[in-house]
Design brief:
Length: 190
């Protein structure tokens, strides 16, 4: 039987990122469903803003190769995306732009193609990243990721209590179910 191996990261490196918090809820759901999950912080994978001249002169950044290696070892992705001006954050877009470059003789699609993708987002607003997530989902889908339905968490500042637990059980279950669905879909696809 296929083992679900999921790479998880958020499109924010802010110290108190809400998106990293909601990601952890989905990660817990994936682990409960039997997946092996590696959570990374994009702070540990610094890459310059993509520029073709820089790329031609220096090749790909070492951090891109390291993150790409983790993507290649995974058969699923869990991504939490904040919403900046109704769209993807520059950090997440830049990371995807670098990861989608050819490297080590492999196509830029190789880290994405055929992976099962679970996408969520959290923000303070009543819309809760609902304008950004379809955009992020489309980007990943175009790279060959098999995207599951998105989960947006509005009003995130009230979503956790002081102990870090989610205040709304329904929201916790929805995020947890997203993680579990990525895991079970990978196994079903074989
Ligand atoms: C440049 C910028 C643009 C933003 N635009 C939006 C937006 O369009 N919609 C929204 O809900 N929140 C917006 N926000 C607020 C973010 O959702 C909020 O900062 C959130 O906490 C970021 O996620 P994080 O906590 O994971 O870092 C914006 C924040 C920044 C810095």
């Amino acid at each position: 039987m296929t083992t679900a191996k999921i790479l998880a990261f958020a499109g924010s490196v802010r110290r108190d990122s809400w998106n990293r918090k909601v990601l952890e809820v989905a990660v817990a759901g994936a682990r409960e469903a039997g997946a092996e999950v590696t959570v990374v912080n994009l702070n540990d994978y610094p890459m310059p803003i993509y520029d073709g001249d820089w790329h031609a002169e220096h090749g790909v950044p070492a951090a891109m190769l390291e993150l790409r290696r983790l993507m290649m070892a995974a058969n699923g992705l869990l991504i939490a995306s904040p919403e900046y001006n109704a769209s993807i954050t520059p950090l997440l877009k830049n990371t995807i732009d670098w990861l989608s470059q050819d490297a080590n003789g492999d196509s830029g699609r190789a880290p994405f193609e055929g992976k099962v993708g679970g996408l969520m987002g959290a923000s303070h607003s009543a819309f809760g990243t609902i304008r950004a997530l379809p955009h992020v989902s489309s980007i990943l889908s175009n790279l060959g990721v098999l995207m599951l339905p998105i989960v947006a968490v509005p009003g995130v500042a009230k979503a956790f209590d002081e102990s870090g637990a989610m205040t709304n059980e329904r929201t916790r279950l929805t995020l947890s179910a997203l993680g579990a669905r990525v895991a079970t879909t990978i196994v079903k696809l074989g």
